[in-house]
Amino acid sequence: RTGRGTSISFDFGQDLSHDFLTHASSNDISLEHLALATYYVLLFKLTNGETDLCTGINTHGRYRDELNYIIGMFVNAIPLRCQLDPHLSFHELTKHVRDNMINCIKYSYFPLQHILNQHPNISNPVFLDTSFEFLLFMGKDEEDEIMLGDSRFSLLPLSIKISENEIMSKFDFILSFQHDLNLNELSCTIDASTDLFNVETICIITQRLQTMLHQQFTSFNCTTNKPIYELSMILSNEQYLMQSLNNTQTSFSSAPSTCIHREFAYQVMKHSQKLAVELDEQSLTYCELLYYVQILSLTLLNEYHVFPGEIVCQCVERSLSMVIGIMGIEMAGGVYCPLSPRDPKHRLHALTQQTQSRLVLVHHSTSLKFSSDIVLCNIDLIWTVDDINSSIIMDCLSDIVVTVDNIAYIIFTSGSTGTSKGVQIRHRNLLTCIDSLVRLNLFTNRDTMIQMASCSYDVHVQEIIGGFIIGSTIIMLRPQGNIDLDYVTKTINQKQVSYLQCVPTYVNILLKFLQSRSIANLSSLRNVDIGGEASTVQLIDKLYTYLPQDCFVWNIYGPAETTVDCTGYVIGRNLNMINIPIGDPLPNYRCMIMNQYLQSSVVSQEGELSVGGAGVFAGYLGRDDLTAKALVEIDGELFYRTGDLVRMDNNGFLHYQGRNDHQIKLRGQRIELGEIERCLLNITSISACVVMKWNDDYLVAYVQSSDANEPEMREHCESHLPPHMIPSIFIILEKLPLNANGKIDRKQLPSPDFSLSTLLPSDKSDTPLNPFEEHIHTIWCQVLHCDENDISRTTTFFSVGGHSLLFIQLYHHYQSVFNFDAHSLSIGLFLQQPTIQQHAQLLQTLPSNDTQPIRWQSLHINQGKTFLN
């Protein structure tokens, strides 16, 4: 500390002084007790709900009568601790403060260190690390100077001026009350260290104190009988800013009285011959797509007896079959529920059991993933007949009763209880979300949108269904095509893609690829959405160098429970900021920043984001208990408590700050660490465990066990969890460190050893056998940033800290070194054989791919009967 500070004072004025003094006298409370209680409330609000507060007060130190006549400095500062109950009224708190001060008199002559030594169980931050001190001064009517013989004595000012605008601050933060007995009025002074606070912050704190004093003591607005947590420090200009934040109500462009499949049919009527979806050499116009969708819908109705509102699961790789399946389920009145082909069989079975779905749509590559007791509908087999009956009656599709408040789809998200949560989204929710994004001009019916997201991520619903209901063209990628950057880049440029959505981690890898291949730009893009995780200014600046001048980059935020997106921010070029905000609410959405007592947080103060409006979900499937916890009613409207911590800046934009629990985002995927922990605890040899995110890239599992081993744990996780939830590293400890409360102390857990020397499941003596394997081995070490002695030729890439995005880097490193394209060796082959030995074999011998793509037949509008309802 330099000792430099600032001082700001304000007068109560006659009315507020009268109310303050009247309250003290009528409640038999001293001014000192009343002022100190006010100070505690100020600290409680400024620290965002801290209830264990401590401040220093001065005592005269003349605890014996004979000391009263001795000249000298007897003043002693003692800490006064207050464990504040936010549910007490201010009146009750004042009595508590009075009793507390009386009880502390016996310590008035104790040195501070002696007091602390008598309370060894209290953590140091309560007393020593506080940034606030309190001294109470009363004004006197005596002269400031007195003469004693030839000596002149004057009152020592609390603050010593260094310059006109600076003082020597003795404490970090001092609040002093002065009572002018002549005028019978009060004033306040805040002295604060400028090493800790800037002058603007102290000015705002002063304004908040004035607001709180008027709220507490003004006779027409007295709140002394209300709970302390209800007291507000929000300034009038901040109230206006918060109201402006939620001025998002707009009329729906086409009244939400219709449903997803009817909006799709409406687009077919508008431009039946427009290209709807394309995958490499396969394509369907809107009319052709509608025809196939109707055929599938009738099959679901007539052969599988699907009824409105029934959950129909689909486990299909990226393909035209996937698109037809989604829209076919919607047109049949069913509820679409995606299952990822990447998930293990055990998880797929668990999710189908959770939905109680009796039917799963599959295709040629996923039909063997389910047990025999589950009814499967192979979409591909519907199109194997040479001549589809053109006389199929479509009229029954118009008899299906579906409203905008029916559930349209269910997306599973990670659950802290160990079981995934099924988020139920209504037709109205999705239609309103898409309409909001169209209003922002994020995408329109003139756009060509590339479908990047996996089906386990709710963004794929926005990309596919959202694109169809506004009349866009959707470009699909082949299975695992999104991790083949050469293929993605060529697709964007050749298909003239204008809208791209992906997470920042993916963007970073894509930019490195573009730079390595000397690709100048992605000239067709009009909008790029890089939500899902935090972005950096450096990444955005670099991204803009590859985009045309009329292209915009967006930071879109939203959990699945708010229907994909709920806030947005256009990131400009040449940013002059440190952190990129998540923006403000989309049209027809509302955002509230709440503290733990569901009271609005002040501007710049961290709080939990609650989202209201047309996108709020219908609830968790079969979990009314979780739904009740997640939804809260505010002013007669339901809001979803996101668990995300945000703050609002002075421009009204929201900034993401983190989580209030152990949920994380990893490469855009939402993960409840508790689900991984419960999976590991199912292993009988593990008595305790904790999973943490490390360096924003890895999941690290710490397990307490005497005989568990890494291969067993990894195999167990791989058979029960999706790939993105499998820990990169397992650390086995005899005992997990505990804190004083008996809980696992995460801060004491050892840092993971990313050198991998103690974590490898394979024998390190299994070294590369020939120069070619040694070359592959060296490339692995470069990508994984590890020592060459730490990886064996039979170690799998994902067992040594690798993940899908690192695998993309590895694959394109191979392409650069060995000069081959994706047609010669696809990235999928390397994923299926993820060891150095297998990669060497693949690179030495070109494989043959026997997989035959499903042949699609072009259909003219006059060849099939379509029904537009």
From TrEMBL:
It comes from the Eukaryota. Pfam families: AMP-binding (PF00501), AMP-binding_C (PF13193), Condensation (PF00668), PP-binding (PF00550). GO terms for molecular function: catalytic activity; phosphopantetheine binding. Coiled coil: none annotated. InterPro entries: ACP-like_sf, AMP-bd_C, AMP-bd_C_sf, AMP-binding_CS, AMP-dep_synth/lig_dom, ANL_N_sf, CAT-like_dom_sf, Condensation_dom. Gene3D superfamilies: 3.30.300.30, ACP-like (1.10.1200.10), Chloramphenicol acetyltransferase-like domain (3.30.559.10), N-terminal domain of ligase-like (3.40.50.12780), Nonribosomal peptide synthetase, condensation domain (3.30.559.30). Residues 770-847 form the Carrier domain. Keywords: Phosphopantetheine, Phosphoprotein. The keyword Phosphoprotein applies. GO terms for cellular component: cytoplasm. One of its GO terms (biological process) is amino acid activation for nonribosomal peptide biosynthetic process. This is Carrier domain-containing protein. It comes from Adineta steineri. The lineage of its organism: Eukaryota, Metazoa, Spiralia, Gnathifera, Rotifera.
